[in-house]
Amino acid sequence: KESNGPTDCYAAISQVDRLQSEPESIRKWREEQKERLEQLDANSRKQEAEWKEKAIKELEEWYARQDEKLEKTKASNRAAEEAFVNDAEEVCPGTEWERVAQLCDFNPKSSKQAKDVSRMRSVLISLKQAPLVR
C-alpha cells in the first residue's frame, strides 16, 4: 500500500521538516497563538468555576429564603387555626350572626372567586336584618 502523505513512522520527520522550512515569523506567531489560546482556556475555566460557585451560593440563599417563608406561613397558619378553634368553641347565644360575618366576605370587590356568590350574600344579609321566626 502506497500513500501520498507521510506514514506514521515518518510523521515526526515530516513535522520537523515542515517546522524547519517555516519562516521564523510564522513559527513565532504559532507559538504566540498557542500561548494565547492556553491563556484564554485557563481564563474561561476559571470564570466558569466562579460562575458555578456563584450559582451554588445563590441557589442556597434562595432555598434558605424559601424555607424561611415556609416556616413563617406555617406559624401564621397554626396561629390562625388556633384562633379559629378557640372562636368555634365559644358559643354564646345571640352571637351567631357575628360568627357568620367573620367567616364570610361580604365585600363583592375583594372576593376573587370565579363563582357568583352575590345571591348567597344577599340572602345572608337579609336573614341578618330580619331573622326567621320559629
TrEMBL record:
An example Gene Ontology biological process: intracellular protein transport
PROSITE patterns: CLATHRIN_LIGHT_CHN_2
Summary of the function given for this chain in its UniProt record: Clathrin is the major protein of the polyhedral coat of coated pits and vesicles.
Keywords: Coated pit, Coiled coil, Cytoplasmic vesicle, Membrane
Gene: Clta
KW Magnesium (keyword) present: no
Protein name: Clathrin light chain
Single Gene Ontology MF annotation: clathrin heavy chain binding
Xref: PANTHER family: CLATHRIN LIGHT CHAIN, CLATHRIN LIGHT CHAIN A
Subcellular location: Cytoplasmic vesicle membrane; Membrane, Coated pit
Assigned GO CC terms: clathrin coat of coated pit; clathrin coat of trans-Golgi network vesicle; postsynaptic endocytic zone cytoplasmic component; synaptic vesicle membrane
Coiled-coil regions listed in the entry: 30-83
Annotated organism of origin: Chloropsis cyanopogon
Membrane topology type: Peripheral membrane protein
UniProt cross-references to InterPro entries, sorted A to Z: Clathrin_L-chain
Domain of life: Eukaryota
Family: Belongs to the clathrin light chain family.
